[in-house]
Structure formats: structure tokens, C-alpha cells
Amino acid sequence: MTQDEQHLDLLATFHYIVGGLTALFSCIFLIHIGLGIAMLNGAFDARNAPPRFLGWILVIVPAVFIVIGWILSGLMVAAGRRLKRRVSYTFCLVMAGLECILMPFGTVLGVFTIVVLMRESVKRLFAAKSGVSAVG
Fold first, then answer.
1. CA–CA dist 64, 16 (Å, integer)
2. Averaged in consecutive runs of 10 residues, what is the pLDDT profile of the chain (136 residues)?
């Protein structure tokens, strides 16, 4: 196994780990959803109850963030799988760029993935797997 293959396998493993952590950290917004549901069900004192629209905001906005986080984590795991199989070079490169917004782990993983994917020898590994000539 060459050094490039080892690096790609290691990056794939870290994509699985960071994808799982992203899914887990996305669940922190469940607290806000619970608070919003409590507001909507009248769990607060009727005299000092917050406006009803605030309860809906605390349900809808965090739910959107959770779904986005889970989708992103699924795409990260998919990128890890594709790195392991050496297919979908462009997808892996785009995902590495997107991972850079997830500080600190995603940024480190994204930068290292971009550095490895920019090597000509790695491009040839992906090209050999897809049956097309190497880019660049």
C-alpha cells in the first residue's frame, strides 16, 4: 500500500468520525425544540407567557439546523466512503471545502483532505478507478 493510499484511508476514517460528531452536535438543538414545544403547550405562567410565535420560532429554526447538520454529516460519511473507494474526486474535493466551515475539526479535516487530493499521484488513483485520464 502506497503512502497516498494510506493517507486516503486515514482521511476516510476521519470523515466517518467527524461526520458522526457533526450529527451528534446537531442534536444539541433538540433542547430548543423542547423549550418551544413547552411554550406552545402552555408550560409557562399564563400572565408572563412568551408570545406564541416565539414558541414556533423555537421549534422551526432549530429543526432546520438539525436537518442541515444531519444532511451535512451524511454527506461527510459519503465522502469518506468515496475516498476509501477512490471514486468521485470532485465530490470529495467539494465536501472538503464545505467541511472547512465546521470549526475546528471540520476545518482541519477539510484542509488536510484538500492537500492530499491536490497531489497528482492521488488524482491518478481516482482516474485509474474511474477509467479516465488524470486531470492536470
1. 23
2. 93 97 96 93 78 92 97 97 95 96 94 96 88 56
CA gap 108, 17 in Å, rounded = 13
Assess contact for 116 and 125: CB atoms under 8 A: no
